[in-house]
Amino acid sequence: MAKTLTSGAMHVGVAFGVTYAMTGSTAVSLGVTLVEATINTAGHHVLDHVWERVGRARSRGTAGTPAAATA
C-alpha cells in the first residue's frame, strides 16, 4: 500500500510540475492535475476489469474468439 501511495503522490507531483512549467499558472496546473488524475484512475479501474476478463477467457481457452470478445 505504501508503494501505491508514494507512486500516486509522485505521479500527481510530476503532473503538476510539468503543467506548471508549461503554463506558469498554479490554478491551471492544479486543474489539469486533478482532471488527469481522475481520468487516469478511472481508466486504470476499467483496464483492471478488461484484464480480469482476458484472464478468465484464457483460463477457459476462449481468448481471441468472437464469443469471448462479446461476452
In short:
The protein has 71 residues and is mainly alpha-helical.
Keywords:
single chain; 71 residues; 3 helices
Low-confidence stretches: none
Based on CA atoms alone, the radius of gyration comes out at: 18 Å
Shape: elongated
Separation, N- and C-terminal Cα atoms: 33 Å
DSSP strand content: under 5%
Individual helix count: 3
* Sequence of secondary-structure elements: HHH
Proportion of helical residues: over 70%
Mean pLDDT: 87
Structural notes for this entry:
The chain is mainly alpha-helical and 71 residues long. It has one domain. It has helices at residues 2-23, 26-60, 66-70. Helix 1 (2-23) packs across helix 2 (26-60). The protein starts with a helix and ends with a helix. The mean pLDDT is 87.
Task: Provide the fold topology.
Layout: H1 2-23, H2 26-60, H3 66-70
Helix pairs in contact: 1-2
